[in-house]
Design a protein that fits this description.
Helix content is 74%, strand content 0%. With 112 residues, it is mainly α. Helix 2 crosses helix 3 and helix 2 runs antiparallel to helix 6.
Length: 112
């Protein structure tokens, strides 16, 4: 299995945990991760997970948004060790593959 196949498989596993998350909410979270990363935080992924956890408990957010961030936090936390082992370019591709999988899921399509 090639490295790219491994990234696609991991992206599918992550997307499977994000069944109620829209691509837009996912991409907003990814931008938060990048903001922490570019701000030179060595623990950018954990900070982004914590951000999602905070939003999942924020009473001013709509229930669907709270649920989306709860799923993001739990799913990414469960894959955090694998994600942090990847160099940034591979993390970027992985997050892009997750976004595409979310689009496919929202259209009721099948992968591969």
């Amino acid at each position: 299995m090639s490295r790219e196949d491994e990234l696609v498989t991991l992206a599918e596993q992550i997307a499977d945990g994000l069944t109620e998350v829209s691509r837009n909410e996912w991409m907003k979270w990814v931008q938060i991760f990048y903001a922490y990363y570019w701000d030179k935080h060595h623990d950018a992924l954990q900070r982004a997970i914590h951000y999602a956890q905070r939003l999942s408990r924020d009473p001013t957010m709509r229930p669907a948004i709270r649920r989306a961030h709860d799923l993001i936090a739990k799913t990414i936390q469960s894959h955090a060790r694998r994600i942090t082992s990847l160099p940034l370019p591979e993390q970027q591709r992985l997050f892009g593959y997750v976004a595409w999988n979310l689009v496919v899921q929202s259209k009721g399509g099948r992968r591969r």
